[in-house]
Amino acid sequence: MDLIKIGGRIKAYRKTIGISQEKLAEMINVSPHYIYEIERGMKSMSLETLINLSEALQLSADYILFGSTHNDNTSLSEQLSKMDEKQRERAESAFKAILPYIK
């Protein structure tokens, strides 16, 4: 995962909609310095922060993480079959991280 690109997308969109780092930090209950670090690619974020950013900015998590959205109706298995080994490993890691919360 490229933290610099993720941060750049967040920063660019935040600026497009005219929200300061301070305002965004207030919206998602984190410090402005943490927003600065995310936008510079210096820090990763928790799943909770990703969700809060997605909701606050009204951007999909797909866009924040990967720069695109996946709005097609292909099944998960179809999507996984199109991934290379590294992408499948990342997906597996993400699923393992969220699985306890959806059981």
Can you walk through the features of this model?
Helices cover 69% and strands 0% of the residues. It has 103 residues and is mostly helical. It has 2 domains: 64 residues, lambda repressor-like DNA-binding domains (434 Repressor (Amino-terminal Domain)); 32 residues, no CATH class.
- SS-based structural class? mainly alpha
Order of helices and strands: HHHHHHH
Choose one word for the global shape: elongated
CATH class of the largest domain: Mainly Alpha
Q: Mean pLDDT across all residues, rounded?
A: 88
Q: How is the main sheet built?
A: none
User: What would you report as the Rg, rounded to the nearest angstrom?
Assistant: 15 Å
Write the layout of secondary structure elements.
Elements: H1 3-16, H2 21-28, H3 32-39, H4 47-57, H5 61-66, H6 76-81, H7 85-102
Helix pairs in contact: 2-3
Short overview:
The protein has 103 residues and is mostly helical.
Which key terms come to mind for this protein?
elongated, 434 Repressor (Amino-terminal Domain), mainly alpha, single chain, 103 residues
